[in-house]
Each structure stands twice: as C-alpha cells, then as structure tokens.
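hey so u asked for the seq, here:
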Amino acid sequence: MLFETLIAEKVTFHFSRVFNSEITPDQLVFQPTRKEFAGDITLVVFGMSKISGKSPEVTGQMLGEALMSETDLVSDFNVIKGFLNISICNDQWIKQLNSDYNPVTLDETGTPNQSRSPVLVEYSSPNTNKPLHLGHIRNNLLGYSVSEILKATGNNVMKVNIVNDRGIHICKSMLAWKKFGNEETPESTGMKGDHLVGKYYVLFDAKYKDQIKELKATGYSDEEAEKNAPLMLEAQEMLQKWEAGDLETLSLWSTMNQWVYAGFDVTYRKLGVDFDKIYYESETYLLGKSIVEEGLSKGILYKKADGSVWVNLQSEGLDEKLLLRADGTSVYMTQDLGTAVMRHNEFKFDKLIYVVGNEQDYHFKVLFLILKKLGYEWADRLFHLSYNMVDLPSGKMKSREGTVVDADELIDNMIVEAEKLTVELGKLEDFNSQEAHELFNMLGLGALKYFLLRVDPEKRMLFNPNESIDFNGNTGPFIQYTHARIQSVLRKAASLPGLKNYRAFDLPGYTGILPKEKELVKVLVRYREALEDAADKLAPSILANYAYELARAFNQFYHEHPIIDPDKATTSEFRLVLCDQCARVIAQSMKMMGIDVPQRM
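ran it, structure tokens below
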C-alpha cells in the first residue's frame, strides 16, 4: 500500500515518544480508508491499545495529534472507534506522480532481466484432433497476459506450448477420415485444416455411439459395448501401429497434423498470442517412457501382472496412477514427465507455470509428486495455474458432440458486433474503410479479451458476448473509448498556443489539487502496486479491474472539471499531465492483457 512504509516509520517513532513504549512496524496493521470516511490510509489501532495502556479511541487520537507534526506528510486525521484514518498531504501525491509516473519510467515497463533464470509459462496445449474453442481462448489469453505481466515486473519469461499431437484421441480423427473422408482436404473443401480434422473427431463419436447402441441391443453391457465397438478397437490398433513406427500410419498422422497446425496459426494470429518455443508430445513421450523405466528399475514404480506400470501414491493421500498401459503405449502423465525433464535440462528454469483448467488439478498434483519421488529436486518449482470453466447462456460445451463455441467463429462474431455498435453510436470520426476495419477488430478483440480476463482465474464464469461489447460499465470498449477521449483532449491541447510542454512532467509548487483530481491521482499512483500484485498472484484480473477503476476515475474527473481553462494555465497544465499519464497507464495496463487501445473514436 502506497505510503505504508513511510507512515509506519513515523508511527513507531511517535508511539515510542508519546506512550514511552516500543512498537515495531510488523505489529502495525494498515488498510485503505473506507470510502465513507475522510482519509487515504487507515491504521488499525485495536491491537496497539494493549501496549499503549489506553483505549483504542484515545490511542488513535494521541497518535493522530503526534503525526500532525509531520507537516510535509500528514495533512489531517480522524478516529472512528479503533481506526485512525490518515490524510496524506497533497504535495506527497504530486511528488509520487512526478517521481514514479513520468513518461520515461512508464516506457521502460516491460523490460525483462535476461540475466535471471527463466520463468516458463506453458499455455494453449491444444490437441490436434479439434479446433480451438472458447475454453482455449481463456487459456491462451490467461497464459499470454500472465507472461506479459511477469515480464513487466522484471522476470525473464519464456512462453511455451505443448501440442498434444499423439494418442488415442488423435487416432479417432485419423480413423474417421480414413474410413469416411473420401480423400477430402482443406483445399478441396475450403475449410480450415483444424476445422476439417475436428469434423471427423465429431463423426467418430457419432459412429462409435451407434456401434455401442447396436452391441447393447445384442446383450452387451455398457462397459463391454464401449470396449468392443469395432471403431474403438481399430483406433487402439492404429495407436499401436503409430508407436511401432508404421509408415502408412505416420504419413497420415503427419498430413492431418499439418492441416491442424496451419489452422491453429491463423487463430493464434487473430488472438495476438505467440510462443517462444513449441514442444510436441510426439517428441517427448519416449523420454517419458525412459523415465518410467528408470523409476521401475529403482523400485519407485511397479508393474502389474498384465504388464502395465503404475505408481502407488496412497501413502500421500492419493491413489494408484497408470503410467504405461499393458500394451506398452504411454498416457498423458508419461508425456508430461518427459516434457518437464526436457525443459529443465534445457533452461534450468526458476519456475515452470502450467496454465491448465481445473479439471486437471489432480493430474498436476500427481505429476509433481511423481517427479519428487523420482528425485528431481526442482519439482518444487512447478506450479499449476488452475482456472475454472467458461459457461455460456446455453450451458456447458462438449467437444466430441460438436457443441463447443469455435474460437474463430466467436472472434469474427465479436468483430461484427463491435462494428454494428460503433456505427450505431456514431463513434467513427472521419475514418476511412481501412481505419474503420482496424477499429472494429480492436474493439471486438478488446471486448472479448477484457471480459475473459477481468474475472479471477479460479472463478467459474459465464461468457455473454452481448454484455462484453458495451461502451459503458466494466468492459474493454469502455476503457478503450476512455483512452480515445483522452487522446482527443491532448490533440486539442497541442493545437493551442501558450501552454507549456506538460509532457516534461514538472509540477513543483502546485497545491490547488481538488477532490476529483486527488481521487484520480490516488488511482494513478497505484499502477505499480496493481501490476506487482497481479504478477505475485498470477491474476490478470487484478490489472483488468485496476484499468477499469482508472478509466472510471478519469471520466468522473473529466465530467466535473474542464481540462483546459484559458485563464488558469498552471491548472490546465496539471490536468493535462493527469490526462497524459492516464492515457499512458491505461495503454500499459491493456497491453499487459494483449489489448490495443485506439487513438481516436
């Protein structure tokens, strides 16, 4: 909390002088002053009264009177029960604005320290049997934003992706295409490659269910029908052929994966996310198998009678976990063991953050524990950034039933909706067609990204596209429009004679700060605190809601005070400084979320 350290130093000094008793800074409890009371920072006095020998109210009153001697720091105080509300001098706020929020300092935000061991952030992690959907969008935006926030706080960040390009689910798409595809390709159908392959994943599920139904009609149980359906047996045989290196199977696998990768790249470009390195499960699972074999030889893992390999974690409060199937094929856990070891060998990372949905919470508990049991000391540096599901007004999404919200379609629809609303509200200021197109893209993506990132990752969320595109309220377009409004004011100021260069950011002696100006300054100077808090908690939602709070504070200030007053040059220059810094901080905050802001609307 801003000024907490400085106030703590003064409180401990005056407490000793007034009460003839010692108190240490770690015994002090501060909190923001509640909006219904005057003050900027509140000291909780209840616990201090035992040391002072006075009631909380008297302790607070005596401390407040003593702090008033710090005339360059404290301007006023009040005591409400056991709470000492302290008002900070206006000069201190302006000094803070001058020292920490000048243009040079802000422009340096986001410079990572390359000498530090890297922090790896894994996100996206798509399967090559289906296109990206709404859940993937939340994953990608969260991973990208966390990476940018960590960079901005001085971390050396590597953005990595692991593509799940092998396994039974991939074979399902391959088999369905082989049996029912009639040699169609992305070129022959005009479909994106990931959409084409996803079509056959859905088709496999439909045909498989038909076969299960037929087997059950002949007397099979549910479990027997699922295991003995001809399509499932063929898919399992295809997986065994893949792992055995069958050339025909590998050729089909390579061809269909290339279709998917080309489709993924289009979606990633639309979203504005990128990666420093991409790993492929097909290249890491063998290392995972060798790690399993090593653990088996050391007696850490064990083999069942059918030849499958397991780890027993019951003593750790978990259960037994399969690591290799009886037929020798690997599972997800096998691949993740190999990938983790490969990454540490390559980067000697300080931390590895997995951005994966909370349905995999148990998986990562097991993964980290297995690595620790196998003797990898760096297992303690692994972290699962778990996020909750995204629901729609229509309910939950299911990939294999084809009921997901396709990422490309959603992005395109958001841009169309942004265009409709922008035209309807008349917010196109002499834009040509290219400029208008860029603005619609900026607003549509801004609405989508902000809406998904403003919610704490741990919370389940309902995505409502109509609610996200709104120029009022806690939305991306509201913040983007605020930035454009500020830029309009700054352009007007630049055309007026007589105003000093407010971007020089030198405001000595300005003392006439008004309540709405001070409220805006108080929000402005919390930017670094919000950024560091977001980095510490790996929560872009903290920065998103800070950006909204700043935009709202600016609009309240803007509606109450004229920015440019021809008769008050110093006041105008100060308010232009506030405008300039608000625009810069809004732009920086939104940049951390991968959101662009317009210069005009």
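The longest strand covers residues 74-80. The CA atoms of residues 568 and 595 lie 36 Å apart.
lmk if thats what u needed
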